[in-house]
């Protein structure tokens, strides 16, 4: 289990590094370079629109790689998705700016961002299932939480590189070539991740399946459609909160409040580090008290914190901004630490890779794709404190709270010592 967990964590860290480095670049520099005829706000909105394309592609990647995972195994998904995402990320760093090739520049950016999202859409399902299906039932949330640490590590790596370049280079140097370096650097960890994943064993639960679904997506839509939609709605809040504080807040603080890029990146990175460290602890609580109670608690905490968060951000004071972001991410990880166990347990094994991954990534379309765009537009037409952004995020959290309330609990429960036939338990240990 430690070896599997480490490999899954490393892979998700690499792929989310690729995904997050684009979000940071979109917040800081892509607007003027690829949409120079737009106003500053419009340029940022256009850059966030290319950012959103990655989220639109992720459910498509889930369906494509989910089919591969349910038909051929979880392990092939990890290799192919990592190769696609890594190659797309390196290519983004090679795209000339608008001043060199005109409208072809943003078009290429859109295509490569789409391919990034396609690869990441397959990554999560493969990494999570390979870990969750190897894990003992009583510690499934703990072991499967390690892939969820990967996004935090990937974010810190992406923003750490951006922070170092931002601190060492002039504005002109950063805009001319400095922002490209993190994209080029993605080649090294991608190759290391491919080597690491090539030796992983296949999931034992997959090997036990006798009747593989012929077309997993069709079966998921036909028999588990309501479950997928509820999962997507439940996860929307986490996406919205995370990308509000890690992507939109960068643009808002640097453009509207005049906070330096270095200070803002440091605030966000510090909060993400705490979030990553808390992930296994929250997962242990999920093994002890159940998946659904933690999801409901974290979602409710986020709903209550969104208005205080935007007021703290609006102060422009680094410590207060850090506290606002940290409170949001603690609420976020309270629900997301157990998602890697919760979603797979909701679906039967023969369509699990497709069902869990599509539900997870559809939540990204609802919560992650639109949030930076909507938040930027709302903040541009408000006062110094972007109350509209707080209200918008609170609304999404309340929607997700309702969806979590409609989902069942899945924490494995040991069979009773007397009359074992009175309770049905799935082969994976989840009650049914």
Number of helices: 19
Q: What value does the Rg take, in angstroms?
A: 21 Å
| Global shape | globular
SSE arrangement, N to C: HHHHHHHHHHHHHHHHHHH
Strand content: under 5%
Could you estimate the helical fraction of the residues in percent?
over 70%
Major beta sheet summary: none
- Helix-and-strand structural type: mainly alpha
Cα-to-Cα separation, first versus last residue = 26 Å
Task: Give the number of DSSP strands.
Answer: 0
Question: What multimeric state do the chains show?
Answer: single chain
List low-confidence stretches: 417-427
Kindly report the average pLDDT value: 82
What does the model show?
With 432 residues, the chain is mainly alpha-helical. The chain is built from 19 helices and no strands. It has helices at 2-34, 40-71, 74-92, 98-101, 104-132, 140-144, 146-168, 171-176, 181-185, 187-197, 204-208, 216-256, 261-289, 291-313, 318-336, 339-346, 352-369, 371-380, 387-406. The longest helix has 41 residues, at 216-256. Mean pLDDT is 82; it is low at 417-427.
Compile the SSE list and pairings:
Layout: H1 2-34, H2 40-71, H3 74-92, H4 98-101, H5 104-132, H6 140-144, H7 146-168, H8 171-176, H9 181-185, H10 187-197, H11 204-208, H12 216-256, H13 261-289, H14 291-313, H15 318-336, H16 339-346, H17 352-369, H18 371-380, H19 387-406
């Amino acid at each position: 289990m430690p070896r599997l967990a480490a490999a899954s964590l490393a892979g998700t860290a690499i792929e989310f590094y690729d995904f997050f480095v684009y979000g940071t670049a979109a917040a800081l520099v892509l607007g003027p370079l690829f949409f120079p005829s737009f106003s500053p706000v419009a340029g940022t909105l256009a850059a966030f629109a290319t950012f959103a394309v990655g989220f639109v592609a992720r459910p498509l990647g889930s369906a494509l790689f989910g089919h591969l995972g349910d038909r051929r195994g979880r392990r092939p998904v990890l290799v192919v998705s990592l190769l696609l995402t890594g190659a797309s990320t390196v290519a983004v760093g090679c795209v000339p700016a608008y001043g060199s090739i005109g409208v072809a520049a943003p078009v290429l950016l859109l295509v490569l961002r789409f391919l990034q999202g396609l690869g990441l859409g397959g990554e999560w399902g493969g990494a999570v299932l390979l870990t969750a299906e190897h894990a003992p039932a009583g510690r499934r949330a703990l072991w499967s939480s390690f892939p969820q640490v990967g996004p935090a590590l990937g974010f810190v790596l992406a923003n750490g590189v951006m922070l170092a370049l931002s601190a060492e280079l002039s504005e002109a140097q950063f805009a001319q070539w400095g922002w490209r370096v993190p994209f080029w650097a993605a080649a090294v960890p991608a190759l290391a991740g491919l080597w690491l994943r090539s030796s992983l064993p296949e999931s034992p639960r997959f090997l036990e399946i006798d009747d593989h679904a012929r077309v997993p997506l069709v079966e998921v839509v036909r028999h588990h459609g309501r479950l997928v939609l509820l999962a997507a709605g439940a996860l929307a809040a986490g996406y919205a909160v995370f990308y509000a504080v890690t992507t939109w807040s960068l643009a808002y603080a640097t453009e509207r409040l005049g906070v330096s890029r270095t200070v803002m990146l440091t605030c966000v990175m510090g909060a993400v580090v705490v979030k990553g460290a808390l992930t296994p602890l929250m997962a242990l609580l999920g093994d002890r008290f159940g998946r659904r109670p933690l999801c409901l608690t974290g979602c409710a905490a986020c709903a209550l914190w969104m208005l205080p968060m935007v007021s703290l951000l609006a102060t422009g004071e680094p410590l207060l901004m850090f506290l606002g972001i940290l409170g949001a991410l603690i609420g976020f990880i309270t629900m997301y630490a157990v998602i890697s166990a919760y979603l797979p347990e909701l679906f039967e094994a023969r369509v699990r890779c497709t069902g869990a991954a599509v539900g997870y990534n559809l939540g990204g379309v609802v919560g992650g794709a639109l949030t930076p765009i909507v938040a930027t537009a709302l903040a541009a037409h408000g006062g110094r404190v972007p109350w509209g952004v707080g209200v918008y995020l609170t609304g999404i959290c309340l929607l997700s709270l309702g969806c979590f309330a409609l989902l069942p609990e899945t924490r494995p429960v040991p069979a009773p010592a007397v009359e074992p036939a009175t309770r049905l338990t799935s082969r994976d240990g989840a009650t049914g």
